[in-house]
Design a protein that fits this description.
With 448 residues, this protein is α+β, with helices and mostly antiparallel strands. 24% of the residues lie in helices and 23% in strands. The protein is built from nine helices and 19 strands. Helix 1 packs antiparallel against helix 4.
């Protein structure tokens, strides 16, 4: 770690003082685009760190239990009770995590590093001999004495984001009771470095050249644990150099505005495998050298878990590839022998979010999800049909209906928790949505 930071510091020094005597020449559009996509993954995590402490009153090594449905980030899962924390550790302090015994219900305590990489999941799948009780997350070289009943977990970074999930299931009160028993606290007083300065921006207004203004410090603040990232880091530092020159900054800023930002927003199409109108992003949670998938997932659904825990299908189109229209009626039918529960050990769900900020869309019915707890009504042949429309269609069971925003395109997110192998490997895709002619309910019914 110290060696890596020394190298970054050396590069930073290289690109200061005399190195800025004249602008960098011949930097290509592709180099700027690559650098932007790479750096944005870290910038998005740093932005969330800043927001959490400034607006959510979070504190280091203290867990914050959220009310059911009470989170505001992109693409939240409405089937779980969330708890959040930021954890700080060093060589003299670990952080304790206490998990109650949880049976017949999905749960995990997920740790992510400063690039959005999942570095640990505390649950019965990964710690079958110690699924509950006391855990201690520590650096590899931490000099901390732990009791015999504590499960030690090694993390690669001094700072981590924690997201705990407890499935709501059939008994929401029991889920909340279990959630509130999860505890986080430090063994000592770790030294906590300030986050590097970064640009502020809204989710629907991506930042421009300003994200490179402190790039060397941003890179040095958190090691990228993924392989073969050195070349991309050099591109970031090269763009930082051009951004410090009056006579090259605007030209580079123009590339960011006209090339890098549109390329970033277009990544979703390139990152997906598509079938039946649904898209499957090629990687979640652990990205290897796929820096593009990491950056876009951090943007569209930050804190995503890895594919062994959950698989996420997304679409804003019907089976024919046409954009979903919130004023229209769509159906999604599962054959009797291929119901979604057969693809998930724990649970499945479908939610809709807007296409700009990926936030849950309000609706008059206050219904935001269909899932394995919805008591869906089967058809006569045992198949199940879901309905997506701004009003309840004539003859459709209300349990099988998910409200949509009249007059607007929207995104659907289809989650499988505890996915079967064919889902994990991308061999399964949900059926496509079929557009129907019109709504049959009275026009006097409320829409939005």
């Amino acid at each position: 770690m110290r060696t890596w930071l020394t190298i970054i510091a050396a590069f930073s020094l290289l690109f200061t003082t005399a190195s800025f005597a004249r602008p960098v020449k011949n930097i290509t559009d592709k180099e700027v685009i690559d650098a932007y996509q790479y750096l944005m993954a870290r910038i998005l995590v740093l932005r969330q760190e800043k927001l959490d402490f400034a607006k959510e009153n979070m504190k280091w090594n203290e867990i914050k239990h959220r009310d059911v449905g009470g989170v505001q980030w992109a693409n939240p899962n409405l089937d779980v009770a969330y708890s959040e924390a930021w954890v700080a550790i060093d060589n003299n302090s670990c952080t304790m995590v206490e998990i109650p015994e949880i049976k017949d219900r999905y749960y995990t305590v997920q740790f992510l590093n400063g690039w959005g990489e999942t570095t640990a999941n505390l649950n019965e799948r990964n710690y079958s001999k110690h699924p509950s009780g006391k855990f201690a997350v520590c650096l590899k070289d931490a000099q901390v004495s732990l009791a015999p009943d504590v499960q030690k977990v090694i993390l690669p970074s001094k700072k981590s984001r924690v997201l705990a999930r407890v499935e709501i299931g059939k008994d929401p009160n029991e889920a909340v009771k279990l959630q509130r028993q999860i505890k986080i606290y430090p063994t000592g007083k770790p030294e906590i470095a300030d986050a590097p300065k970064t640009v502020d921006f809204e989710h629907d207004q991506l930042p421009g050249i300003e994200i490179f203004d402190n790039a060397a410090s941003v890179l040095a603040s958190e090691k990228d644990i993924n392989p073969n990232m050195g070349g991309l880091q050099m591109k970031v530092l090269a763009v930082e150099k051009t951004a410090k020159h009056d006579n090259s900054r605007e030209a580079t800023a123009k590339i960011v505005r006209e090339k890098a930002i549109p390329a970033f927003l277009a990544m979703l199409e390139k990152l997906q495998t598509k079938k039946n109108g649904w898209g499957l992003v090629r990687r979640f949670g652990n990205y290897g050298n796929d820096y593009q998938a990491r950056a876009f997932v951090n943007y569209a659904g930050i804190w995503a878990n890895n594919n062994n825990e959950a698989v996420y299908f997304v679409t804003k189109n019907d089976a024919k590839g046409e954009p979903l229209d919130g004023s229209a009626v769509y159906t999604l039918t599962f054959p009797k022998d291929k119901l979604p529960s057969s693809r998930a050990k724990y649970f499945w769900s479908i939610t809709n979010v807007d296409t700009t900020n990926f936030k849950v869309i309000p609706n008059p019915a206050n219904k935001f999800v269909v899932n394995n707890q919805t008591n869906l009504k089967p058809n006569a042949d045992g198949s199940v049909t879901l309905y997506f429309a701004s009003k309840l269609p004539e003859g459709a069971p209300e349990e099988n209906w998910l409200p949509t925003p009249a007059g607007s395109n929207y995104n659907l997110t289809f989650r499988f928790y505890g996915p079967t192998k064919d889902v994990v490997k991308g061999k399964y895709f949900p059926p496509g949505l079929v557009k129907r002619n019109s709504l049959a309910k009275a026009d006097s019914e409320s829409t939005y």
